[in-house]
Amino acid sequence: MDLDALDHKIIAALEADARISFAALADLVGLSKTPCWKRVKALEEGGVIRGYRTLLDPARLGFGLEAFVQVSIDVERFDAFEAAVRSHPLITRCHATTGEADYLLHILATDMAALDRLLRQELNRLPGVRHTVTSMSTREIKSDISLAEAAGHAASTVSPIPHSRGILS
Fold first, then answer.
1. Is the pLDDT of residue 26 over 50?
2. What is the spatial distance between Cα 106 and Cα 137, in angstroms, rounded to a whole number?
3. Separation of alpha carbons 134 and 70, rounded Å
4. Residue 164: is its pLDDT beyond 80?
5. What is the pLDDT of residues 28-87, one digit of tens each?
6. How many Cβ atoms from other residues are within 10 Å of residue 93's Cβ?
7. How many CA atoms lie within 13 A of 64 on its CB side?
8. DSSP result, 14-54
9. Number of DSSP helices (H) and strands (E) in the chain, helices first
């Protein structure tokens, strides 16, 4: 889906405040209410807007620890491993990776004892797990990202690769 300047304004405004009314959003981006609503619906149907969520503070919910776990698995068990990860409530993010590990997990725990139990009794028993390496977060530096801002930055910094005549040309 190709996004124009108005679409970028809309997603930036919604990313900053998903509870904004259509009237306020329309005023902010310089449209009337109905065309603004239609653009938002098109962004939703096009998959640009995947949903609306409330951001919660893990520490205020009792999660005193965040950890990142590199996981190496038996390759023939990846489907079962991924299914188990998707259903585990304390694994908040999972990425398939290149390098020494197959996956990188972000997990939450209330304290060190809970993290130890999670690693020993649950994570290491997921299907196909061969090896894990855990790093604990000591403090968060950045988490409040703006994908709308990142997309705008990426679009403004991408330049075509100039054609050069080399030996093989």
1. yes
2. 10
3. 6
4. no
5. 999 999 999 999 999 999 999 999 988 899 999 999 999 999 999 998 999 999 999 999
6. 10
7. 6
8. HHH-TT--HHHHHHHHT--HHHHHHHHHHHHHTTSS-----
9. 6, 4
Q: How many residues does the chain have?
A: 169
Gap between the Cα atoms of 80 and 95, Å rounded: 15
Kindly tell me if the per-residue pLDDT of 162 is higher than 80: no
User: What is the residue whose two structure tokens read 């939450």?
Assistant: 108
Question: What φ, ψ does residue 50 adopt, rounded to 5°?
Answer: -90, -15
Structure token pair of residue 32 = 């009337």
CA distances from 151 to 3, 100, 106, 146 (A): 10, 30, 24, 9
Q: In this structure, are residues 37 and 7 in contact, taking their beta carbons and an 8 Å threshold? A: no
DSSP for 117-130, please give it.
HIIIIIGGGSTTEE
Helix (H) or strand (E) holding 114: helix 112-117
Distance CA 90, CA 111 (A): 13
Domains of the chain: 5-53 (1.10.10.10), 59-136 (3.30.70.920)
| Res. 169: pLDDT tops 60 | no
